[in-house]
Design brief:
Shape: globular
Distance between the termini: 8 Å
Strand content: over 45%
Helix content: under 10%
Structural class: mainly beta
Order of helices and strands: EEEEEEEEEE
CATH topology: Jelly Rolls
Radius of gyration: 15 Å
């Protein structure tokens, strides 16, 4: 059995304020995920970004310039399709800082 780990970052933005969008595809998995508020370059705004697990009713707010660690129980993972964001200003979004460990069984 072996483990392959990936540490990466990416951006997810939205062009439609008020319409939640998923962070990504179900094939992208996170063992650790931090979301940082991202504002569209060149636009002066003080809006925040909201995130939540898909299907839940409450939003978590990420204020500009802050980072929010998404709680993921040890030994489990979340898929990018299970988290959604909503923005107040077109072009805003989040920077994802994440790690993903995949365990392979076999020869």
């Amino acid at each position: 059995m072996s483990t392959q780990s990936t540490i990466a970052n990416a951006f997810k933005t939205s062009t439609t304020p008020g319409t939640p969008v998923a962070l990504g595809l179900s094939t992208v998995r996170f063992n650790k995920l931090d979301l940082a508020g991202y504002q569209s370059p060149g636009i002066a705004n003080a809006s925040d970004v909201k995130w939540r697990p898909v299907g839940s009713t409450g939003w978590n707010t990420i204020f500009p310039g802050t980072t929010f660690p998404v709680p993921i129980p040890e030994g489990t993972f979340l898929r990018a399709s299970q988290i959604e964001i909503d923005v107040a200003q077109s072009g805003d979004g989040v920077q994802l800082n994440y790690s993903s460990a995949v365990v392979y069984e076999g020869p």
